[in-house]
Known about the structure:
Elements: H1 20-27, E1 32-33, H2 36-41, E2 56-59, E3 64-68, E4 73-75, E5 81-89, E6 93-95, E7 101-110, E8 118-129, E9 136-142, E10 145-147, E11 169-178, E12 186-194, E13 199-201, E14 212-219
Amino acid sequence: MGANAQTSVPAxxxxxxxxxxxxxxxxxxxxxFASSTERDAAFGGTGEKTLAEGQMxxxxxxxxxxxxxxxxxxAIAGGKILQVVSTFVDTVFxxxxxxxxxVTGHTVTITPSAATSKVYVVYxxxxxxxxxGRVRKLNLLRDGTNIAQxxxxxxxxxxxxxxxxxxxxxxxxxNFLDSPATTSAVVYKIQVATDVGTVSVGGDAxxxxxxxxxxxxxxxx
Length: 221
């Protein structure tokens, strides 16, 4: 916690004598907090200011300046990357399941600093199928719910790389701007399924190996 960080926003009364520390805190300007946890606990308690529309705050852990819009905290500087979380996997995952299953290690967790933030998801991996002319299906999930889905189709998924008769390995990429609308921890993960045969993610478990990555970025509103 930095020198300017505080754990409460006091409400003063007429005639109250302020201490040097209280005056210093006022001179800081926008209240500074170590994280959203300290921010949320700083208002509404005994001797503390009531949280209301227009309140400002600065968070040290994400370097984000925020305002309260009357119902939730929002970032002031729109379109900026507030934080990045990424996983890098250099092992091959294979399955014969025709139902979607988790791809081991292809999971990340991010905690947005404001409910109005977007989360930009970038996923890339080499996929391989043992059978020619077949489809491998990839799904992106947020907290167990499929996202980045098509509006229709018989094999709905976030990505359906199709392998021709002469192509076994193919890179798959998913780019999606999500709106989780929360300040709680959000889990993003990748699932895979096959229509027939064996599908692999990260290579072909024999000749080709290519690391996969799943990256999520909080973008201020």
